[in-house]
Write a structure and sequence with these properties.
Number of helices: 3
Low-confidence stretches: 1-15
Structural class: mainly beta
Strand content: 35-45%
Largest sheet: 6 strands, mixed
Number of strands: 23
Oligomer: single chain
Radius of gyration: 36 Å
Length: about 325
């Protein structure tokens, strides 16, 4: 009986000890510590939601800290979706590490060397495909070797800048059969004028006397009164359209990179010959030209080319913007 009492006493003591030491409500529960990502506020880098000018890139300075384990990889996202690795060059132009210098852009970017213990990355970003007035969220997600992650984002809006165009004229008939003297075009007003009229910036080159009368219209334009004509080179200004050319600077840029015309031609077939400079190639619907007169740049789009036979009803229909 005494042994039984001793055994029961010992069990009670052990149970009391377990309750006293193993179930202390004050014992802290420690969660694993993950990585930390933040954007540094510094001149030349965006750290808060921002506006940027159309055509500009922007840069961020991304600071990364470790938690309980080393850093593993960094993923770049646009509007919440990871950019495919094959397309990362469209967005990321340069990455520089505070530890290792220049890094080749990848997505996800494998963190290696000293960077695994923490680093600051300077990243230059192109807002690829982003439209004016559109806001896009650019995000950076850092993961560590323990599978934990942290993410930081910034909203960037592309805004319209530059000097707005002041005039747009549509449906202008050029070299229209009708009132005499419509071989020239006054681009300021969109009016047909005489070929040699002082108000004209460009003129139609008329007919080629070497061709049969049935259809001998040259479909060429030339510069008059001190202007110069260049054709918009769409390979040099990718994505350029008449409708989207909303600033004087955009039109001037299309002129600066435009296709030049060095040829001159003499017209008409009879009477006093006139030599015209900067004569274009035969034009087609959709062609765009920029005409420079002094400090004014006129964008001219050919909307239609009407060719007739055995009469003088041949004409262009153009739109003008400046």
């Amino acid at each position: 009986m005494q042994n039984l009492f001793l055994k029961l006493s010992g069990f009670a003591f052990l149970l009391t000890l377990l309750i006293a030491t193993g179930c202390d409500p004050d014992d802290p529960i420690v969660d694993p510590l993950g990585p930390d990502a933040s954007l540094v506020e510094e001149a030349g880098f965006l750290s808060d939601d921002s506006n940027i000018e159309e055509g500009e890139t922007f840069s961020v300075k991304l600071r990364l800290f470790t938690g309980d384990t080393d850093l593993s990889n960094l993923t770049f996202k646009v509007d919440g979706a990871a950019v495919p690795g094959a397309n990362i060059g469209d967005y990321i132009k340069n990455i520089t590490s505070s530890n290792s210098g220049s890094i080749t852009p990848q997505n996800p970017l494998l963190v290696t060397g000293d960077d695994k213990l923490g680093a600051t990355y300077e990243i230059e970003i192109t807002p690829f495909g982003q439209l004016v007035d559109e806001t896009v969220t650019y995000s950076f997600e850092i993961k560590d070797d323990g599978g934990l992650s942290d993410e930081v984002s910034i909203d960037v809006t592309v805004i319209f800048t530059g000097t707005p165009t002041e005039m747009e004229i549509n449906g202008v008939l050029f070299n229209q059969s009708g009132p005499a003297g419509t071989g020239g075009l006054d681009l300021d007003a969109g009016n047909g004028t005489g070929s040699g009229d002082a108000s004209a910036e460009i003129r139609d080159m008329g007919i080629d006397c070497a061709l049969p009368n049935a259809s001998n219209w040259r479909k060429q334009m030339g510069a008059v009164n001190g202007t110069e004509v260049r054709q918009v080179d769409l390979a040099a200004v990718e994505g350029f359209t008449f409708d989207d050319a909303k600033t004087k600077e955009a039109i001037q840029g299309a002129y600066d990179s435009g296709i030049t015309f060095s040829s001159a031609a003499t017209t008409p077939c009879s009477g006093s010959p006139v030599t015209v400079q900067y004569v274009t190639d035969p034009v087609s619907e959709g062609d765009m030209f920029v005409v420079k007169k002094g400090t004014t740049y006129y964008l001219v789009r050919v909307d239609a080319v009407t060719v007739t036979t055995n009469n003088n009803d041949d004409n262009y229909e153009v739109s003008i913007k400046y």
